[in-house]
From TrEMBL:
Family: Belongs to the queuine tRNA-ribosyltransferase family.
Residues that, per the record, bind substrate: D90, S91, G92, G93, F94, D144, Q195, G222
Originating gene: tgt
Keyword Zinc assigned: yes
Protein name, UniProt field: Queuine tRNA-ribosyltransferase
Gene Ontology molecular function, alphabetical: metal ion binding; tRNA-guanosine(34) queuine transglycosylase activity
Species lineage: Bacteria, Bacillati, Bacillota, Clostridia, Lachnospirales
Pathway: tRNA modification; tRNA-queuosine biosynthesis
Organism for this UniProt entry: Lacrimispora algidixylanolytica
Pfam family of the protein (one): TGT
Region: RNA binding, residue numbers: 253-259
Assigned keywords, A-Z: Glycosyltransferase, Metal-binding, Queuosine biosynthesis, Transferase, tRNA processing, Zinc
UniProt-annotated binding residues for Zn(2+): C310, C312, C315, H341
């Protein structure tokens, strides 16, 4: 791995991360394909066309269906889904958070019931690393617990301490797996996750502890889980300076275009979120003048594309009226076009962000972009 900062503008970083599966230009938005596909009938050829750099898949979901051992038989996720660029796999830790009532957290790991058929599953740091090694992803995430919000200080501290112990076990197991001759990707990278909720002193102490482990990259987890945007930005401002500047910083599960713009200014350079695909499937599309709901009746006779000048597959060929018709008729094409537009919008915004940092005008770009999006359109 080689992470090289090309330019800085305040805390905003413009960098390159060179991996075994190609070089990632940062800041970057990772397009979320939970089960090795973007929901909305988006193919990997589509992803290349809309400027996707990194695809993100989920360890837990692929483990329970179709199975990481099956995917390994195909040579890993890259071969299985025909994707030749970087892939990041989430560790399954967020499912610890989201499957409340179906899991028990112990020191050794987590006992799950599958959300699909109820069968019992155990996943600890070693199991998570083994599954991600079978998937052969470019970047693996360490196994962690994502605490709920709000949580008591005692619960948060106990959870963070356990996450630290799990990170050390993840690191040891990843090193072991990468040394084996049969491992699919012996250059698999490992990112650790900073936790601590909105307790800034716990966050900072944890950031210092995990920074000493000299990992390939660092993520901030447990944000955008119910706290206000103000609280999230405060935690970023306080915590990011205690993570290594010469390593990629990833804000997990975030977010809206405004969240990304604000977080880049605070030193983050990796993002992921289901918003563009999820909102697209429900007819909500992003533009430089705010979000549109294509189900609104005012678009029934609107011959314009979703956004004038946009070069995505939807805007180059179809009107708002037609896409609205498809969505109302529950035709898959309507969802597909809306998702493609939203992902293209996000990927293009990241290009603009990189250019603004290169040109040392990120602050002005951010303010202009936010003001434009708040302005709205007809």
């Amino acid at each position: 791995m080689n992470y090289k900062i090309i330019k800085k503008d305040g805390r905003a970083k413009r960098a390159e991360l060179t991996t075994v599966h190609g070089t990632i230009q940062t800041p970057v938005f990772m397009n979320v394909g939970t089960v090795a596909a973007i929901k909305g009938a988006v193919s990997t050829d589509d992803l290349r066309d809309i400027k996707t750099q990194v695809q993100l898949s989920n360890t837990y979901h692929l483990h329970v269906r179709t199975g990481d051992k099956v995917i390994r038989e195909f040579g890993g996720l890259h071969e299985f889904m025909n994707w030749d660029r970087p892939i990041l796999t989430d560790s399954g830790g967020f499912q610890v958070f989201s499957l409340t009532g179906l899991r028990k957290i112990k020191e050794e790991g987590v006992y799950f019931q599958s959300h699909i058929d109820g069968h019992k599953i155990f996943m600890g740091p070693e199991e998570s690393m083994q599954i991600q090694s079978n998937l052969g992803s470019t970047i693996a995430m360490a196994f962690d617990e994502c605490p709920p919000h709000p949580a008591t200080r005692k619960y948060m501290q106990d959870s963070v301490d356990r996450t630290t112990r799990w990170l050390d076990r993840s690191r040891i197991e990843m090193a072991r797996l990468n040394s084996l001759p049969e491992t699919l990707n012996k250059e698999q990278l490992l990112f650790g996750i900073n936790q601590g909720g909105t307790y800034e002193d716990i966050r900072i102490a944890h950031a210092k502890t995990i920074s000493a482990m000299d990992l390939d990259g660092y993520a901030l987890g447990g944000l955008a889980v119910g706290e206000s945007h103000f609280e999230m930005y405060r935690i970023l401002e306080e915590t990011v300076p205690y993570l290594p500047e010469n390593k990629p910083i990833y804000l997990m599960g975030v977010g809206t275009p405004a969240n990304i713009l604000e977080s880049v200014e605070r030193g983050v350079d990796f993002f992921d979120c289901v918003y563009p695909s999820r909102n697209g499937r429900h007819g909500h599309v992003y533009t430089n003048y705010g979000k549109l709901n294509l189900f609104n009746s005012k678009f029934e006779l609107d011959r314009r594309p979703i956004e004038e000048g946009c070069q995505c597959p939807a805007c180059k060929s179809y009107s708002r009226a037609y896409i609205r018709h498809l969505l109302k008729a529950k035709e898959m094409l309507g969802m597909r076009l809306s998702v493609l537009h939203n992902l293209y919008f996000y990927n293009t915004m990241m290009e603009e962000i990189r250019d603004a940092i290169d040109n040392q005008c990120y602050g002005e770009y951010k303010e202009r972009k936010l003001a434009k999006m708040a302005e709205g359109q007809s």
